[in-house]
Amino acid sequence: MTVTGKRVYVLGTGVSGEAAAALLNREGANVTVFDQGSEKTTESIRELRDKGVEFRFGTGDELPLAEADLVVTSPAFPLEHPWITACAKEGKELISELELGVRFWKGASLAVTGSKGKTSIVKFLSDTLNAAGISASPAGNYGIPLCTLCLAEKPVQYAVVEVSSFQMEHTNTFAPEAAILLNVQADHLNRHHTMEAYRDLKLRMFSAMRPGAIALLPEGLSDGGAIPQGVETWRFASSAEVHVPGEGHAGYETGRIVLCDPSGNRREVSTAGSWFDNPVFGVSASAAVAVLAHLGLTDAQIAHGLESFQPLPHRMQWIGRSETGVDFVDDSKATSLTAMMAAIRMVSAKKEAQKSGGKQIILIAGGQLKEPDVNCAKEMLENFVKKVYLIGCCAKQMEDAWSSVVPCEDCGCMEKAVEKAVAEASAGDTILLSPGTASFDQFTGYRERGERFVKVVRAVTHPAGVSFLKDGE
């Protein structure tokens, strides 16, 4: 791709917009960045301006598209945005920041998409490759924009790209050496409107892959013809049993991941003692293990990656245990009911492995619902949860729906929920923050919500004379 001397518009001044502008500027394009917000000056914007990039803030719905040779959009702009529809009407080439990065990236790439669990798998792949002496970096929706990775003086061998449905709206030539679709669950329907449209965007990630690459999907999910001929297809599941002859299969079973390639050759890697040794993340990890094996890593290198993996904050993060024997887990990243139920499954599986008796999960949930129907969680709550302490604007809706199967208490805020949960918890219980909702009714995001949980836990336990044991102590 050549952009030298061309006039290129970049839509949005966020991280991806600035990354696109920097790459285009290096490649000799005349770059103008448009932003509908008020004027802002950051160090990165000042540096780009010094290099000749123009910024226009407070722009209305009209773009002077007659002057543009190419338009690059950030993921923040939905298909219905006036700038996006104008590009289509005027016949202007419109691509995502990811697509721009793809066209200039000279290294290899791996891709991970799905509704939940993407970031952890991207981190696991990147960490394990680096530990094996193969340079890799997270990129895309987690890590750094692919355009920024293109600017590195010493590029890595692999970009491990977290791909969102937003990015795929304007990405067409992405051809990773390996790609994983972890799951498709109800999410972002306010933008994509239907599950079919959302699923198709996820599947689009496979469409430009080349023969010899490997594509991994959960067992039972049709690819709808999205995977090109010559691409090796694998399925992953919570069983080592192969259901589709001629395809690769990756299966998680307690304590191990079993791989069976299309020729019937089998490999086994232990997950014992790792963060992935549970029925939720273990299945996703099996897909990543298949990718690492495809890239030539040994069983020992993969096992080391599993054993040493440390999750990012707010993703089933064990915070500590009180002297009274109560565990605290921060899963603030669980912004959907599906993610909340997965968290309950993980904790309950651990309790079962420890042969703990009775219900020992105390759940803190609630916030800003992304789904209209909360009844889907009732069976899981009835079977595994001792009590639910509710916060946020949907607390009453959850209480009305769930109180017939599990005791619920509307606490309103995090402070009150933690205080009551700690006061009523018994030895062996786990107090789990897994809200099942967005956080914007009370917090700036899931990170602040998780940090508040940890802060309140420490504040509540210390004054009571309880020694709080942090991870590793």
Per-chain topology:
Layout: E1 7-11, H1 15-26, E2 30-35, H2 43-50, E3 54-57, E4 70-73, H3 82-90, E5 94-96, H4 97-104, E6 108-113, H5 118-131, E7 136-140, H6 146-150, E8 158-162, H7 165-168, E9 178-181, H8 189-192, H9 195-204, E10 214-218, E11 232-237, E12 248-253, E13 256-260, E14 266-270, H10 281-294, H11 299-308, E15 317-322, E16 327-330, H12 337-353, E17 361-365, H13 378-384, E18 385-391, H14 395-402, E19 408-412, H15 414-424, E20 430-433, H16 446-461, E21 468-470
Parallel strand pairs: 1-2, 1-4, 2-3, 4-5, 6-8, 6-9, 7-8, 9-10, 10-11, 11-12, 16-20, 17-18, 17-20, 18-19
Antiparallel strand pairs: 12-13, 13-14, 15-16, 15-21
Helix pairs in contact: 1-4, 5-10, 5-11, 15-16
| End-to-end Cα distance | 53 Å
Strand content: 15-25%
What is the total tally of β strands?
21
Assigned CATH class of the largest domain:
Alpha Beta
SS class: alpha/beta
Written description of the protein model:
The protein has 473 residues and is of the alpha/beta class. It has helices spanning 15-26, 43-50, 82-90, 97-104, 118-131, 146-150, 165-168, 189-192, 195-204, 281-294, 299-308, 337-353, 378-384, 395-402, 414-424, 446-461; strands at 7-11, 30-35, 54-57, 70-73, 94-96, 108-113, 136-140, 158-162, 178-181, 214-218, 232-237, 248-253, 256-260, 266-270, 317-322, 327-330, 361-365, 385-391, 408-412, 430-433, 468-470. It has 16 helices and 21 strands. Helix 6 links the parallel strand 7 (136-140) and strand 8. The chain has three domains: 7-92, Rossmann fold; 104-308, Mur-like, catalytic domain (UDP-N-acetylmuramoyl-L-alanine:D-glutamate ligase); 317-470, Mur ligase, C-terminal domain (Protein-Tyrosine Phosphatase, Chain A, Alpha-Beta Complex), CATH 3.90.190.20. Helices cover 33% and strands 22% of the residues.
